[in-house]
Fold:
Amino acid sequence: MRASDFAYLDAPTPVALAHRGGAAYGPNRGVENTMAAFRRAVEMGYRYLETDVHATKDGQLVAFHDTVLDRVSDVSGAVEDLEYDALREVRIGGTEPIPLLGELFEAFPGVRVNIDIKADGALEPTVREVLAHDALDRVCIGSFSPRRLRAARSALGPGVATAAGQVGTALMRLTPAVVSRLLHTPAPVLQIPGQHRVAGRTITLVTPGLVRRAHALGKHVHVWFHSWSREDATEMHRLLDLGVDGIVTDHIDVLRDVLAERGHPLTAPT
Structure:
């Protein structure tokens, strides 16, 4: 499938995606993946948000990155072990509630959402929420589980945009066969880190050749960053010079300034 076949991808490139609302942006530090963080990104001009999703014990779908709550709140335990009535009392950073995915759809009707399905239990609720909010054209579904991604594509139909991005030991050697398998998927978006570490080695995934081959197949290349990788203006300019179609960033202010320098400013809502 080609990117041009999907309404989700009909915006001019390069596409700017706010990862967890922009987790490294000063006002969002400590309150990532909350409505406050997402709202700041939208107010800055972002029209694409990225979030992970998990399902509670009673099947409510929340926009939340971690499997457990310990890292970002003073509550311990796993999302999947809690009823939503208990989870809704949790405060990220001591102040912000964990949003339902449906709240993002409703609060930001002009915004598109890149959804990473983080657990098997979140698959069916994701399908349910996308359909309930008539959001098929507003979402791109990704997952590190190819099985989960295939199931989402099957349930939502060929009209939903999906992102292929599994990386692992198979990519330790970027042979032609491996690159071909990476490119020839039904997904219109290749969403991968610029670099990846496998068995103690750092390999470069996003190369001029990979971008050219992806574009020849009509696919987008969207790049995200590991916590250990360089994510500054210089690296963003380098990736954009390679021709990547989108950048998924925690540093939403940096990417905003980079795009403005390149003549592609974000447009904040009036």
